[in-house]
Amino acid sequence: MNFMVEVENSICRIEDYNDYKYWYGRKTFTRVRKWSFMDYVIFILVNKGRSSVIEIEEYVEERWGDASKIISKQALSKQRLLIKPKIFKDMNIDFIKDVFNSSEFEHDFEEYLYY
Questions:
Q1: pLDDT tens for each residue of 27-45
Q2: 64-68 contacts: CB < 8 A, separation 24 or more?
Q3: Are 35 and 69 in contact (CB under 8 A)?
Q4: Contact 71, 35 (CB under 8 A)
Q5: Are the C-beta atoms of 23 and 44 separated by less than 8 Å?
């Protein structure tokens, strides 16, 4: 299973964060476009830090396998500015809570104190 599918399905339950409180402007991300709000969030999470063009092409190939979903660097940058950092803070908090509450974690570290 690739990391992008893991991120989308189980790591953070990404669909729980598809809410207007995580973007600037109530009407932002309401139009149907090539990429949805969640596509931009997943792209940011799986970005490896290379050039935007390479990252976009690899993301589109891995996610859809369809070159018609490729967007420009300018479009990516413009939409990323509309995403509030709060989404990543909330995802991080929820992920940490899930790790600490998992049975594997409690079994492996039951003798240790953690907060």
A1: 888 778 889 888 899 899 8
A2: 68/34
A3: yes
A4: yes
A5: no
| pTM score, whole prediction | 0.77
Q: What is the phi/psi pair of residue 106, to 5°? A: -65, -35
DSSP-derived letter for residue 9 is I
3-state SS, residue 83: strand
Chain-centre distance for alpha carbon 59: 12
* CA gap 41, 45 in Å, rounded: 6
Tokens at residue 102, please?
Answer: 């998992």
Task: Specify whether the CB–CB gap between 42 and 8 falls below 8 A.
Answer: yes
CB 55 within 8 A of CB 48: yes
Structure tokens at 114: 């953690």
| Residue 22 burial (10 A CB sphere; 0-12, 13-18, 19+) | buried
